[in-house]
Specification:
135 residues; mainly alpha; two-stranded antiparallel sheet; 5 helices; 4 strands; 10% strand; globular
Length: 135
């Protein structure tokens, strides 16, 4: 259990920690050129885990999720390090969109927009806190 510095709530951040650890691992192992080539990971919405594979594109990541692409978020590996709280915000965002009917489909040209910078992640976090009545 941790206290969320954004809201003051104490809650479990295990899924976000696994997500952040996955991103950090791949940022450490991949070269700058490989990250700039827009590599993806598949993050399980349930627990923030990953299969450990870096995919060349979102479509490959979706194809290899054993027939259940809607159970994962397909995240482009960013250049900058993401905090546990940023990963928590992204999990919240994707879960919310999926809960409201979005379903990724293999081969579908429309894809869910995932923020690609810390500034965008923080914009979503601020909007969510404001909507929930937090500071």
């Amino acid at each position: 259990m941790r206290t969320d510095p954004r809201t003051g709530e104490t809650r479990n951040f295990d899924a976000a920690q696994r997500f952040a650890d996955c991103i950090a691992l791949h940022q450490t192992v991949l070269t700058h050129e490989e990250i700039m080539a827009k590599r993806f990971v598949a993050i399980a919405l349930f627990d923030g885990s990953s299969d450990g594979i870096v995919y060349d594109n979102r479509l490959d990541a979706m194809r290899l999720q054993k027939g259940h692409p809607a159970l994962y978020a397909y995240i482009q590996i960013p250049l900058e390090r993401w905090s546990v709280f940023a990963c928590d915000t992204l999990l919240w965002y994707v879960r919310g969109v999926y809960d409201n009917g979005y379903r990724p489909r293999v081969g579908d040209e429309q894809s869910l927009y995932i923020p690609r910078s810390m500034e965008e992640v923080e914009q979503y976090a601020r909007a969510a806190r404001n909507a929930a009545g937090h500071r």
